[in-house]
Amino acid sequence: MCRGGRLDTIRVVCRLLQRLKRFRATVVMRVVDELLERVMHGVETNDYREQQRRVGEVFMLAELYNVGLVRSQCVFEVLNLLLNYDHQIPPDRINPR
Q1: I need a surface site. Which of 21, 44, 49, 65 has the fewest CB within 10 A?
Q2: 3-class secondary-structure state, position 6
Q3: How far is CA 84 from the centre of its chain?
Q4: DSSP state, residue 88
């Protein structure tokens, strides 16, 4: 996505994608799809050397939400994935009463 960039670069890229959506919606969809794939791959591999990149990718997802290119449902699904991936939760702990 934004290799070697700073967080300001991610904000600028997201604004650019927002404006580009009018003319090239498929490009924006590909970028969002690739971003989600990278987040999923990062969660699956869990390489500590990639943590900084994963933080940047999640930050970009948040910025895409801020500019209106991603819905809140997508953000919450990624958050749920990050919190619950590869955890064994006992059934009695899912809905404690």
Answers
A1: 49
A2: coil
A3: 15
A4: -
Q: Give alpha helix (H) positions in the chain.
A: 7-20, 25-45, 51-66, 72-84, 91-94
User: In terms of Cα–Cα distance, which of 22, 42, 31, 24 is closest to 64?
Assistant: 31
User: Tokens 């943590």 appear where?
Assistant: 51
| Angle between helix 7-20 and 25-45 (nearest 10) | 140
Judge whether 12 and 44 are in contact, CB under 8 Å. Answer: no
Mean pLDDT, consecutive 10-residue segments, the chain of 97 residues? Answer: 71 94 93 95 88 92 95 92 77 66
Left (φ > 0), alpha (ψ -120 to 50) or beta: where does 86 sit?
left
